[in-house]
Amino acid sequence: KQEVTQIPAALSVPEGENLVLNCSFTDSAIYNLQWFRQDPGKGLTSLLLIQSSQREQTSGRLNASLDKSSGRSTLYIAASQPGDSATYLCAVKRNNAGNMLTFGGGTRLMVKP
Amino acid sequence: GAVVSQHPSWVICKSGTSVKIECRSLDFQATTMFWYRQFPKQSLMLMATSNEGSKATYEQGVEKDKFLINHASLTLSTLTVTSAHPEDSSFYICSAPRQGGAFGYTFGSGTRLTVV
Hints:
Largest sheet of chain B: 7 strands, mixed
Helix content of chain A: under 10%
Radius of gyration of chain A: 14 Å
Strand content of chain A: over 45%
Order of helices and strands of chain A: EEEEEEEEEEE
Number of helices of chain B: 0
Number of strands of chain A: 11
Oligomer: heterodimer
Structural class of chain B: mainly beta
Order of helices and strands of chain B: EEEEEEEEEEE
Shape of chain B: globular
Largest interface: A-B, 23 and 25 residues
Largest sheet of chain A: 6 strands, mixed
Structural class of chain A: mainly beta
Strand content of chain B: over 45%
């Protein structure tokens, strides 16, 4: 059974800091991994999608890396801003016939001005 | 592209009544739709998977007679909470995979259900 863990569960940083959010998964047989952002009371917004054959993806100040063999992904946020405050979730899609996602518990990020 | 529209955004209902939540894929066909439930400060818990043209698949512990799922077309899936009780109050989110998940997943904006 795939298990996804995110560390830390919560993080508070001053504005401008570069930060790293971690995601680990127990079964390396994944098809892809997706990072999402969730604002309070809202749905999920997709940030980055990394296919199993890829090592990283970048979008603006965000960079996500994937090390499938070690079961890890990191989301790097450069020059954090108060608007980055949200919960960040990683989710993996298994490498089998099903298309279900397995989610981590999320990291609640607060960027203080 | 790849938008999933979820309605209503929030709903308050009395105990014993039923509430229907709709999710529509606006610019792609969603043969599969996932329904999640989320409690405060917790991650998403998969409730069921709806498939167009066939019965939904429910996760262990989810009452299928209480949470009725219908996947009426390639663009519409509905979740009906029947005979709602206060413990059903939660945040419900739908999600559709694009190309079976190969191109990621798109989520609805969620529905906040409060049962009084």
